[in-house]
Write a sequence for this structure.
């Protein structure tokens, strides 16, 4: 069982609100990720971090921002939510596997936050 | 373009039966291939990770195969249980960076009693 937690599990808010999705892991992983997933569709990377004070944008353009002030905490913020932001947001972290050069890292996911913007 | 295609899109089987899910990819250069199980409303959980040199890998009733020459993988589920009902996602990692994982859209499996 992975020790990575996301809150809230479900969030329904109105357009224009500022929201923060929380993600915490207790495994001491340096690498953390945010993915966005629509129903029946593939996961898309929107942000990642390789350690404290390191954040990068992923492959999918997103209006959200992230911060990494502590190793265990990787929150995602939307300054002004819109209906187009309705989706499931999944946080993940990883550890090095056998032989880092093969990128065999195990990826652990949280349970996700289902966001609905009205 | 790097892509991962999964088939079928959805599948219904009876409890106790076997099934095989397919994954074709065009990712190159290729590092490894992973299968994840995602229950509805939950995050994906890793089932197997295979490098290009591995042909088969088992995890309980789940057996994954990989043919790096034809760029195909399959996930075989033996003696299915109701708890196997979930989406099964094939993920391919190109060489050169973890942030470049390519996800398939998944196969949604429903096991009926």
């Amino acid at each position: 069982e992975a020790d990575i937690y996301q809150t809230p599990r479900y969030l329904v808010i109105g357009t224009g609100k500022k929201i923060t999705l929380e993600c915490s892991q207790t495994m001491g992983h340096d690498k953390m990720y945010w993915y966005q997933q629509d129903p029946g569709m593939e996961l898309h990377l929107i942000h990642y971090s390789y350690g404290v004070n390191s954040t990068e944008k992923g492959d999918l353009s997103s209006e959200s921002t992230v911060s990494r002030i502590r190793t265990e905490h990787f929150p995602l913020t939307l300054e002004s939510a819109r209906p187009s932001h309705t989706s499931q947001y999944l946080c993940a972290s990883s550890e090095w596997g056998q032989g880092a050069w093969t990128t065999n890292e195990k990826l652990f996911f949280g349970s996700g936050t289902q966001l609905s913007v009205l | 373009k790097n892509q991962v295609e999964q088939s079928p899109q959805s599948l219904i089987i009876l409890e106790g039966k076997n099934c095989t899910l397919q994954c074709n990819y065009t990712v190159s250069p290729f590092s490894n291939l992973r299968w994840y199980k995602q229950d509805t409303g939950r995050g994906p959980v890793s089932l197997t990770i295979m490098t290009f040199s591995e042909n088969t890998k088992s995890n309980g009733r789940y057996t994954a195969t990989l043919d790096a020459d034809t760029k195909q993988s399959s996930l075989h589920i033996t003696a299915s249980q109701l708890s196997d009902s979930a989406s099964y996602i094939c993920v391919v990692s190109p060489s050169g960076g973890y942030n470049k994982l390519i996800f398939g859209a998944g196969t949604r499996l429903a096991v009926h009693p």
Remarks:
- Chain B has a mean pLDDT of 92.
